[in-house]
Every structure is written in structure tokens, then in C-alpha cells.
Design a protein that fits this description.
hydrolase, mainly alpha, globular, 7 strands, three-stranded parallel sheet, 10 helices, two-stranded antiparallel sheet
């Protein structure tokens, strides 16, 4: 069966059947060595509390539709999460406008990715290949590290759908940070092998964190889907990615999108003792330094934020 079917709501059962082991990777918390936590009491009626780990059996089989995108959640649940966790999802046109501002600063002129329409409330992708400033190469753009804080379902990283109404967005019209990197990769590579190599570079440079585990899992699934769908659009006749390649992508994502209390740099509910910074089994969140992809090394998020 196809690895992903392109729907907005990626069914966990489909992932399990198509690529055994990949969902286990997407559930992994790389700091604690366990699974990510639910991080919310929204699922207490099902027996899942905020500090419980999200187990595979809790979201597959008979429980296969427990975790749903925000637009598929009941209205009262959406309102409660907005009040309790300040969870507010951004329309895709706002995401595009803000990502355009980021790119305009880097390129030194208005963003070359989109043309605003409908008074800025919509956009069209530019038709020509992205031109790069003198002294800058497309590879530099792909490797630019970008972070979405409190990322939710990661709408700023990939606009697979509009997070406010659930409208699917075709690959050529996507405007997330990772989407833009993948567009550049598609425009500058010819062979599938080269495309995959640079898509992995793009993924390694794309970061995000969130408190709530259901959001984080959705974000991780969305990034995996974004890469697979972008490759399909670029190479429609190519064979599906192998299980090994999908698991490699999922591993990168599980390091780069992590669960964290953004005020204390620890997983939700963990103590934040400064002495833990040098503990061999720290509570402070860690991610990988991908400077050398062949030998990535764990680093403390807190240390990186202080440097930044």
C-alpha cells in the first residue's frame, strides 16, 4: 500500500501497515528515552493523563482515530485548549505572509516564493525557479536552521492543510519553511538520489517544539508526509520510498521536533534544576547537532538558546 495517502488526517494504522516501526520512532522522546507524553487531560476519559506516555496501542486499532487534527476536534475542545494552553492556529495566508517576511530579510528583497492575491489573503506561487543573491547558493538556503516555537501541528513548517479550516493545500502551493526548502531542492536537483540527499539536509535544518503530545505527533507526521508528498510531486513515476528511508526520515524528525516546556527547557512536568545540566541522564531537553550529518552529536537545547 502507499506509504501515505495524502489526506489531511494521517491515520496511525496506515503508518503501521505501510512502514512497520516508523510510528514507534515518531512517538519517541529523545531526551527521556521513553515515549512522548500526552501533555493534556483532554484524553482522561480514555484513561490517558497528561504525564502518561503515548503508547502505540492507545492510538491504533480500535483507537485509531483518537488523535485528530485541530479542525476535526469538537468546538468545545478547541475553545478549552485555546483558553488553557493559548492554542491558536494561524490561517495559511498569515503563515505565508510571515514566512515571506523571513525570506525577504534573507534574500534582501521581497520574497521570491509567492505573489499575494485577494488583498494578501491568498497567494500564488511564483512560476520561475527561485533566484539567489550574489554570493549565496541554493544549498545555503536549504541548510538554514529554522525553528517554529510552540509549533502545534507545525503549520509554519509545512502547510499541508490550512490549520484553521482543514483545507488541503497542493504541494506546489505550500509555503511552510520546510515546503520552501523542498521547492528549492526540487528546482535544483535532477536525480532522485540527489533530491533525497538534499531533502534530508532540509529536514535536519527544520526544528519545532510543543508541550502537548498529540500536537507533537501530528507535527511529526506532517513533516514526514510533506517530504514524501514533495518527492512524489517531483518524481511521480519513482518507486515509493523504502522502509529504511522512511525510518531514517522519521528518526531525523523525532530529534528535530521535540516535546518541551519552553519556559524551563524540560519535558512537561519535569524538574528544572540547573545542576541537571551536566547530569548524564538529564531532564533538560536535548536535540542533535547536525553540523556533521555522519556524526551528529546530542546538545542541550538550553545551551543553544543561550548562544542564540
Amino acid at each position: 500500500m502507499p506509504l501515505l495517502l495524502g489526506e489531511v488526517d494521517i491515520l496511525e494504522d496506515d503508518l503501521v501497515k505501510a512502514v512497520p516501526g516508523v510510528l514507534d520512532i515518531l512517538l519517541r522522546d529523545r531526551t527521556t528515552g521513553r515515549n512522548i507524553l500526552w501533555g493534556t487531560e483532554d484524553y482522561a476519559a480514555l484513561g490517558h493523563h497528561a504525564q502518561d506516555e503515548i503508547r502505540l496501542e492507545a492510538i491504533t486499532g480500535a483507537n485509531g482515530r483518537v488523535i485528530r487534527p485541530r479542525t476535526a476536534k469538537a468546538a468545545h475542545v478547541q475553545r478549552r485548549r485555546s483558553v488553557e494552553r493559548a492554542e491558536v492556529f494561524t490561517p495559511a495566508w498569515v503563515v505565508n505572509a510571515q514566512n515571506d517576511l523571513i525570506d525577504a530579510a534573507w534574500f534582501g528583497h521581497p520574497s521570491p516564493f509567492t505573489v499575494p492575491t485577494a488583498g494578501g489573503r491568498a497567494w500564488e506561487p511564483t512560476e520561475r525557479a527561485i533566484p539567489f543573491p550574489e554570493g549565496c547558493a541554493w544549498r545555503d538556503y536549504v541548510r538554514l536552521p529554522r525553528l517554529e516555537i510552540t509549533c502545534g501541528e507545525a503549520p509554519y513548517l509545512t502547510t499541508r492543510y490550512d490549520a484553521t479550516d482543514g483545507r488541503p493545500i497542493p504541494v506546489p502551493e505550500r509555503v511552510g519553511i520546510l515546503d520552501r526548502k523542498l521547492r528549492v531542492v526540487s528546482e535544483n536537483t535532477i536525480r532522485d538520489k540527489d533530491w533525497m540527499r538534499w531533502a534530508k539536509h532540509a529536514l535536519r535544518a527544520t526544528y519545532g517544539y510543543d508541550w502537548q503530545g498529540d500536537n507533537l505527533l501530528l507535527a511529526r507526521e506532517n513533516l514526514l508526509a510533506a517530504v514524501i508528498e514533495a518527492r512524489r510531486a517531483r518524481f511521480p513515476k519513482a518507486a515509493e520510498l523504502s522502509r529504511r528511508e522512511c525510518r531514517e526520515l522519521a528518526t531525523i524528525i523525532s530529534w528535530n521536533l521535540w516535546q518541551m516546556d519552553g519556559l524551563r527547557f524540560v519535558p512537561p512536568g519535569y524538574p528544572a534544576d540547573d545542576d541537571l545540566l551536566d547530569n548524564p541522564k538529564p531532564a533538560h531537553c536535548r536535540i542533535l547537532d547536525w553540523s556533521d550529518p555522519r556524526r551528529p552529536k546530542p546538545v542541550f537545547v538550553r545551551t543553544l538558546f543561550r548562544k542564540g
